[in-house]
Write a structure and sequence with these properties.
Layout: H1 9-16, E1 22-23, H2 35-42, E2 45-55, E3 73-84, E4 97-99, E5 104-110, E6 113-114, H3 117-120, E7 121-122, E8 125-127, E9 138-148, E10 155-160, E11 167-172, E12 192-201, E13 205-207, E14 212-217, H4 221-229, E15 242-247, E16 261-263, E17 265-272, E18 281-288, H5 292-298, H6 304-317, E19 326-331, E20 338-339, E21 344-348, H7 360-376, E22 384-385, H8 391-408, H9 410-415, H10 420-434, H11 449-452, H12 458-475, H13 477-491, E23 495-496, H14 498-511, H15 521-529, E24 536-541, E25 546-552, E26 564-570, E27 576-582, E28 589-595, E29 603-606, E30 615-616, H16 620-629, H17 636-651, H18 657-667, H19 674-690, H20 694-713, H21 718-728
Parallel strand pairs: 2-12, 18-19, 19-21, 22-23, 24-30
Antiparallel strand pairs: 1-5, 2-3, 3-9, 4-8, 5-6, 5-9, 7-8, 10-11, 11-16, 12-15, 13-16, 14-15, 17-18, 20-21, 24-25, 25-28, 26-27, 26-29
Amino acid sequence: MLEAYQVTVDTVNSYMNNGGFTADPHFSENILLYLHEAEQREKLVENTHYDLLLSFLKDPETTSSTDTVRGKAFYGHIDVHFELTEAFEKAKDDDLFLNYHGFGVKNINLNGHSLDASKYFHHQRIYFDRKILKLRGSNQLSVTFKSKYRNDGEGPHLFKDSEDNAEYIYTQFEAFYANRAFPVFDQPDIKATLKFRAIAPEDWTVIGNGKDIATLKKGDRDLDLLLNSTDPSLVSSATEEYKLTEFAETKKIATYLYAFMAGKFDFTERNMKIKGLSDPLRMRLYFRKSVRKDVERIQEYMFEPVARAMEWYSDYFSQPFPFDKFDQIYCPEFKYGAMENVGAVTYTEVLLFRGKELTEADKTSIINTALHELAHMWFGNLVTMHWWNDLWLNEAFATYISYYAMSDIKDIQQVVPSLWIQVNAFKGLGYHDDELSTAHPIYNSVSDTDMANSVIDGITYGKGCAFLQQMQHLIGHQTFEQACKIYFEKHAWKNTYLQDFIDSLVEAHKQQKKNKVDIEVSAWSKNFLNTKGVNTLEIIEGSNKTLVLRQTLGEFSSSLLEQKLNILIFDEKLVTKTISIMTSSTKNDVELPLSAKDAKNKMFIINDGDKAYSRVLLDEATSKFLSKNLFKFDDIITRTLVWKGLTGMIKARKIKSSLLFEFIENNLRAEKHPVLLKTILNAAKGAVELYVPNEDFSRISSNMFELLYDIILNTKTKEILDILNESIFNFLDSK
């Protein structure tokens, strides 16, 4: 459920009356952080550390009969420690500030001096008094604050379980939402250590980025001392028994990766031996008590595969798992699929697939999502982008490397043998978005934090993933792996730009003396990353009786692409041969090492293995043969590429939709792979809805219905039957 974030200034002020808090008169506005502000602020501070204390006890000031038990707000106190760089001497007074989008603040103290909140807290920012700041040495700003619970998944989210009335709190801080929980330098390149403590009801569990290392109960002397040194009012109105949980201090990480969860979470735990770590790693899977049975059903995919992938990543990156524990938390109403918070990954409960028998596609989604977020522990968390311009690389890398790891880890590959179909599906999202008038290059400038939330699309994931897949194919697996090792060795615990990753690829490429691909990696990357649109590949006869691979610009394409790809050559007896070819970024046609005479009675599948990013056209002879014989090809990716090629050709008006249904009539009965079967039937549904002429609609719909009905009668596999039963009603003649 979503709630519009519209709170009036009067409402905010009403929450402040009894607690001495000063409200922000600009609380209800949408105030952004701009790139130029972030770049300036990053130059001014260093050695940043946060001491954060939060209280999740009931809030009597904002609780009413219509509210959840917690009320609308939670309280906290933070000490922000930082040093100023020499650049601050030339900076303007308002260049340095903390971001805070909360109900109010009180007791702002800078280096032992009180600051007037009404003067220094406004426009969702806490500013500093320049006269009090120390140009050399450590500075400390302390403040007590009151923050709003949300239920839109952006910031601190509060959920009440209708089954047992249990409450759950969790956070989502990417891209610019940590400041909705507490005051912070909220940008990815001001990395800081965090010491986190939380006060919560005695029967609650609290989760943070680090390990929980101590618990203090109400009345403990050490807890009283802590409260007296921060703000005793955090518990002065407490009506429930409470405890304090203390967590180990984090290493230097970005603010969007901070996280906390609190509530009546249940969990299962395993201590896993991980190669490269001296001690077993504590791994926990947290969940609402009311979904325990669903979690127990899928937990086998959340521990052992993750542990094996940790070892794989550790070896591939030459960096051991960088954090002290690994928790995974299923969160109700979670807005996204998952989030890679350091040591505390959050997941949507959709991935529990409640009440459903798990298919291979479901298992692929479960494992890949976990391994995607795990990959971020290195790419994103250990090494972090400076700014949101490179968010695409963060996500594309985790997407591609997680699938590559799954394909290389035998125990996982056996569970999900067809996982590369999912990569093809990701690329399909890229093709879709890249063929629209809104197409944009993979690399996009991001001017502000609002724009950071809008750059995630099919091009980011699909085409970005394709860029990395093609790069690995182009320079070789060993070179790509060496580049990753160089990257993490040079930049661990630091922030980077895209060029730093490209430089690592260049360096690794130069080191591989046996690398036969003669390309300039940096220039090649820039061309791929800055090109928009999807091009098309087809094989035609050239002017001098040779065969050529022709690349044609798409409607919204800006450039040709140089790519390395395979072409499968076969005859009617299915005797096959594969050749490798490079397309060109400067000319449309590239000759194949095959004359027209040699190619007589031969047929072709372009981009076999799916290493390139391009639409492909089937020639007439190949289409005619495959329409009756595609099912004879054992390789699932080969079959997938042909089906995807057909749908792309229909969309581009290169063939009539009737050809797709001819393929279906002759090949569908033999297709036993559930993921591909569903893809084919979805394509058929789309073709009927969008491309079949009115005069053919009834006939084709009726034929599809009868075909599926006949297959259903002769099918015993439940997963296949479920797909057929779900699809058959798409072909009832409703026109």
